[in-house]
């Protein structure tokens, strides 16, 4: 078994002639919650897109459970056990809540206790109340819950959330953080992008700070909380 579930080494990614990532490296162990933080436009989403095969890296390596996935198409990356909750939620607007959940449901990694409709509704009771509603009829918070639940229905070994609570009301944000805490306690490996440093240092194990396409700081929650100058310099806090 690989030492790390996900290992990204020195990846470089471009959009056309515009180079965005300049040697980004990060690693996530099984059962670990890791964050990727930085100001807008610094390369966080591009890192996720490279991991998922949506914007392939031009250099470097990406390994998932010891397998090189850098050249794989995005659907194969997902089939190997990486579930993405994308920025902007991207739920299917013309499918009901229930249809969104079952459309991509699978247990390809043979989880002993796979996610089911009942289990995701226990995690997000509001979804059960909205089973018959179209994706376009849900509030922003409900769509985010649905996006997380949809990713869980694929039974991922690694869950990636890009902007986990962006644009959500405080009560909904608190519910999302509570959900992620429950998932982490259950042993789910998680990579999360968000701007809420206080919440992330409370529940995550380690953090990577990115600036202009480079990782400029990494450390534990205790170390990040103890260095407000690092937060101010790289996160604008």
Write up what this structure looks like.
The protein has about 240 residues and is α/β, with parallel strands linked by helices. It has a domain at about 1-80 and about 200-235: Rossmann fold, CATH 3.40.50.300. Helices cover about 35% and strands about 25% of the residues. The strands form 2 sheets. The protein has a 6-stranded mixed β-sheet, sandwiched between helices. The N and C termini lie far apart (about 40 Å).
**CATH architecture group name of the domain at 1-80 and 199-237:** 3-Layer(aba) Sandwich
| Arrangement of strands in the largest sheet | 6-7-8-3-9-10
Name the CATH superfamily classification of the domain at 1-80 and 199-237. Answer: P-loop containing nucleotide triphosphate hydrolases
Residue windows where pLDDT falls under 50 for at least 5 positions: none
List its salient traits.
237 residues, Rossmann fold, 10 helices
């Amino acid at each position: 078994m690989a030492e790390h579930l996900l290992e990204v080494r020195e990846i470089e990614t471009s959009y056309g002639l515009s180079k965005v990532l300049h040697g980004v490296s990060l690693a996530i162990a099984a059962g670990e919650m890791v964050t990727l933080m930085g100001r807008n436009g610094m390369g966080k989403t591009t890192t996720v897109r490279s991991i998922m095969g949506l914007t392939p890296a031009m250099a470097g390596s990406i390994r998932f459970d010891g397998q090189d996935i850098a050249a794989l198409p995005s659907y194969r990356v997902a089939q190997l056990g990486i579930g993405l909750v994308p920025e902007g939620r991207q739920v299917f607007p013309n499918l009901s809540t229930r249809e969104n959940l079952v459309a991509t449901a699978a247990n390809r990694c043979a989880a002993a206790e796979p996610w089911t409709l009942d289990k995701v509704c226990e995690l997000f009771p509001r979804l059960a109340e909205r089973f018959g509603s179209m994706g376009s009829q849900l509030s922003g918070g409900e769509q985010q819950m649905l996006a997380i639940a949809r990713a869980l229905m694929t039974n991922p070994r690694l869950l990636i959330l890009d902007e986990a609570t962006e644009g959500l009301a405080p009560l909904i944000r608190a519910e999302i953080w509570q959900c992620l805490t429950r998932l982490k306690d259950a042993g789910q490996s998680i990579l999360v992008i968000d701007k809420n440093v206080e919440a992330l240092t409370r529940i995550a194990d380690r953090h990577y700070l990115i600036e202009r396409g480079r990782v400029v700081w990494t450390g534990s929650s205790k170390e990040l909380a103890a260095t407000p100058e690092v937060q101010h310099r790289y996160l604008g806090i």
